[in-house]
Write a structure and sequence with these properties.
Elements lengths: L1 E2 L14 H14 L7 H8 L4 H4 L11 E4 L3 E5 H13 L9 E4 L10 H11 L1 H14 L2 E3 L6 H8 L6 E4 L13 E4 L2 H9 L3 E4 L2 E8 L8 H12 L7 E6 L1 H4 L3 H9 L8 E3 L4 H9 L3 H12 L13 E6 L6 E3 L7 E3 H10 L8 E5 L6 H16 L8 E4 L3 H9 L2 H7 L2 E3 L21 E5 L15 E5 L2 H10 L11 E2 L5 E2 L17 E2 L50 E8 L4 H4 L12 H4 L8 E2 L8 E2 L10 E2 L1 H10 L4 E5 L11 H8 L2 E6 L4 H9 L3 E5 L13 E5 L1 H5 L10 E5 L7 E6 L4 H9 L2 H10 L1
Parallel strand pairs: 3-4, 3-6, 4-5, 6-7, 9-10, 9-12, 10-11, 15-16, 15-18, 16-17, 18-19, 23-27, 27-28, 28-29
Antiparallel strand pairs: 1-22, 2-8, 13-14, 20-21, 23-24, 23-30, 25-26, 29-32, 30-31, 31-32
The structure holds FE3-S4 cluster.
């Protein structure tokens, strides 16, 4: 079933309803006194639900107003789709309110190469794939089976369209911004909003303008632009904001290059990233069988929809001259530690690290476009001609079946294999820890990847693996040197025959001259299939990987055991978490991925890599009310489990940017499952904060960050003012105060907090979760 050329697609369900969007935008613009708008504002505001009603009170203030939005599509990957679907199922609907797709990519483990890995991973994950496939059939969702590719690449190739608003249950969903749209990474609970047709709420983001001038040249690639920006903005710099690129430097880049930039906007915490409609986007739509979408977008652009208005105001503007951009390498362990390539050798030396590279990895959702692959193949050809082979394991992950088949047809794959590359399955693999790496266990070593994320242990589960991020071409060139200090722009490599070899700057091609080929057509689902309600969704009763969800109870009212009315019951503080606490710390990936659909089992990993600020130990919590048979200290999940067994609701005290990193809703579900009712933070990462609200956990911010150190484990915390907030008597952001009774004695004291709960989010809190609220509405 290998097809040779890409057919035109049926574009009816993938063309944004531009006339309707423009009409909606006109209504919002009128409410905003026709002030000039940025592109991101236009896309957001054209998707506002019932603008006359929802915006009647006071227009829109960026960073303040909560928008009720109607996304047009939902995409889910196999790990996060499980919980999203389990939640959707319990909402009681017979079909999805918007088109949706499921992508089997995260559960494929990389080990020996594409075919064997795929075969083995299908067997290992059969029950999950059966569950996803049966749920997709029942509710009319497009199902992309294992081997079809990585969610973001498939979305870009098939669904993304200029001006569209989409939600995806993965933090790199913004990748689709490369096609001039807003694609936002969310948790499964937010996806359920869109799937049930419930307006999805988002605080109107600030808009950071990135003004691009000049032109990329030599070794500099779009990846280097975002690596450079990550260094400037840091992992927090984009929080609560959309990165909107504009200026002449946007227009001479390929659509897939823009997608790489948008993809890694997630690394600076941005809500998403977008670009005005470009000729590169038009060409990409046409090359991927979507000429009618391009034609409709052309028309929408003529009507002023797909670019910012002249004089549009940004909250901040960053200037980048692409002509001056140098290749950049970021890491280890954080994506914002940016070092220009020319300084990387001395950076390694100054830190006293070994100069050896242990593996080079290219591809992933971030960098596996045709342009990326032809660029690295150019380097492979040059190296082969010089008689060189990769000195370290060199792994390549194609982003989709379409890319795999096209690069195979165009002999790019064979050129990479000629110099020693292993081509892995079209899936996430080593990017998400699905890398069966045997050679460096427990050993300090350095790898270079063209991926997007580099938290400790992310790729191979070894916390001593220093993981650096770079463009695919820099990664490839380094693979031939095996040395981190090698600068391919200036340094030569010794040849076996004597003499020296220097790479010429790589040249790629953005689109294949012979067009894309879809490859195995069996991988492609029918577009917008009809639901088959008679389908039985497959969950084995003895399954260790899937479990139907039992709704969380409301903390208020009859049956809650709470005698404080609309205040939370008294909460015992489980621990004070020190420093960086990403969603990986709260709910680790790697081996735990297999329990994504089983809340009881996956909760065993709660906060297992978090540092307890009282004592500084990892995965240690104190149980001050332990029974004689129990120890005073135990692992964090074990103590949380004890609290649950005692019906003791609890709170966490956490540091800055708590929950950064991903849309992993398990990081919110798991504490809630064990009885967490409130988290008090110096600050929250946006997606995670929303996820906590969805699951009925109250997130509050310290007004005075120094108060963080005044609350410790075993202290009792009571809310004050929550009832007034829930009843609408005090709607201020400072409505909630906390009364703290220290465990060690001493006088109780009160601290002020700030909250970001909207009126609707308060309904979720009251109902016990957003899902409880939705179900009651459908039933009622
Ligand atoms: Fe997969 Fe890594 Fe992208 S996990 S979706 S390849 S960020």
């Amino acid at each position: 079933t290998e097809a040779t050329s890409l057919p035109q697609k049926d574009c009816s369900s993938i063309t944004p309803p531009y006339p309707k969007l423009l009409k909606n935008l006109a209504t919002v613009s009128r409410i905003l006194d026709n002030r000039p708008l940025t592109l991101a504002e236009k896309i957001l505001y054209s998707h506002v639900h019932d603008p006359e009603r929802t915006l009647a009170s006071g227009g829109i203030k960026r960073g303040e107003t909560y928008l009720q939005l109607m996304p047009e599509r939902v995409a889910m990957q196999d790990a996060s789709a499980q919980m999203a679907l389990l939640q959707f199922m319990s909402a009681g609907m017979s079909r999805c309110a918007v088109p949706a797709s499921i992508h089997c990519d995260h559960l494929i483990q990389a080990s020996e190469g594409a075919d064997k890995d795929l075969e083995r991973s299908i067997v290992t994950n059969q029950e999950v794939f059966d569950f996803l496939e049966s749920a997709a059939r029942k509710y009319g969702i497009e199902f992309w089976k294992p081997g079809s590719g990585i969610i973001h690449q498939i979305v870009l190739e098939n669904y993304a369209a200029p001006g569209m608003l989409m939600l995806g249950t993965d933090s790199h969903t913004p990748n689709a911004g490369g096609l001039g749209m807003l694609a936002i990474g969310v948790g499964g609970a937010d996806a359920v909003d869109a799937l049930t047709g419930t307006p999805w709420e988002l605080k109107a983001p600030k808009i950071i303008g990135v003004h691009l001038t000049g032109q990329l040249n030599g070794w500099a690639t779009p990846k280097d632009l975002i690596l450079h920006l990550a260094g400037k903005l840091t992992v927090r710099g984009g929080t609560g904001a959309i990165l909107e690129y504009f200026g002449p430097g946007v227009f001479n880049q390929s659509c897939t290059g823009l997608a790489t930039i948008a993809n890694m906007g997630a690394e600076v915490g941005a809500t998403t990233s977008t670009f005005p409609y470009t000729p590169g986007m038009r060409a990409y739509l046409q090359a991927t069988g979507r000429a009618p979408v391009a034609a409709a977008a052309d028309k929408a652009a003529q009507n002023g929809y797909l670019a910012a208005d002249k004089d549009a105001q940004y909250d901040d503007v960053i200037e980048v001259n692409l002509s001056e951009l140098e290749p950049t390498i970021n890491g280890p362990f954080t994506p914002d530690l940016a070092t220009p390539l020319s300084k990387f050798g001395s950076f390694i030396q100054e830190n006293g690290w070994k100069d050896d590279l242990s593996a080079a990895l290219i591809g992933s959702c971030t960098n596996s476009s045709y342009e990326d692959m032809t660029s690295v193949a150019d380097l492979a050809r040059q190296a082969k001609q010089a008689g060189l082979k990769a000195k370290v394991p060199f792994l390549c992950t194609p982003g989709s079946e379409q890319i795999r088949a096209t690069i195979e047809r165009d002999q790019i794959t064979s050129q990479l294999q000629d110099v020693g590359a292993t081509v892995l399955a079209n899936a996430c693999g080593p990017c998400i820890g699905q890398w069966k790496r045997e050679d460096k266990k427990g050993e300090e070593n350095a790898i270079l990847t063209s991926f997007n994320r580099n938290f400790k242990s992310r790729n191979d589960g070894n916390k001593l693996t220093m993981n650096f991020l770079a463009s695919p071409t820099v990664v490839t060139a380094m693979a031939f040197s095996g040395k981190l200090s090698f600068n391919p722009m200036t340094d030569s490599l010794p040849l076996p025959s004597g003499g020296a070899f220097r790479f010429a700057p790589p040249r790629g091609q953005d689109l294949p001259a012979a067009g894309f080929t879809p490859g195995e057509t069996g991988y492609y689902p029918a577009p917008t299939p009809e639901p088959q309600p008679e389908t039985q969704v497959v969950i084995r009763p003895d399954s260790q990987r899937l479990e139907l969800l039992a709704p969380f109870g409301s903390p208020f009212g009859p049956g809650s055991g709470n005698e404080r009315g609309l205040e939370l019951p008294p909460l015992q503080v489980l621990m004070r978490v020190r420093g960086k606490c990403t969603t990986d710390h709260i709910s680790a990936a790697g081996p735990w991925l297999k329990y994504k659909g089983h809340l009881t089992n996956i909760s065993e990993n709660l906060l297992i890599t978090a540092v307890n600020d009282e004592g500084g130990d990892v995965n240690v919590a104190f149980d001050h009310e332990h029974s004689p048979a129990e120890s005073e200290t135990d692992t964090i999940p074990a103590v949380a489990k004890r609290f649950k067994a005692r019906n003791q609701p609890w709170a966490l005290v956490v540091d800055d940017n708590y929950g950064e990193g991903s849309a992993r809703e398990h990081a919110a579900l798991q504490p809630r499952f064990y009885g967490c009712a409130m988290i008090v933070a110096r600050s929250f990462a946006r997606i995670h904060e929303t996820n906590l609200k969805k699951q009925g956990v109250l997130p509050v911010w310290f007004v005075d960050k120094a108060d963080y150190g005044r609350i410790g484990s075993g202290d009792i915390v009571e809310t004050r003012g929550l009832a007034a907030l829930l009843e609408g008597r005090d709607t201020s952001e400072h409505a909630i105060r906390l009364r703290v009774t220290p465990r060690a004695g001493g006088a109780p004291f009160e601290i002020p907090t700030r909250h970001t709960m909207s009126a609707d989010q308060l309904k979720w809190l009251r109902a016990g979760s957003a899902l409880n609220h939705i179900r009651a509405q459908i039933a009622g």
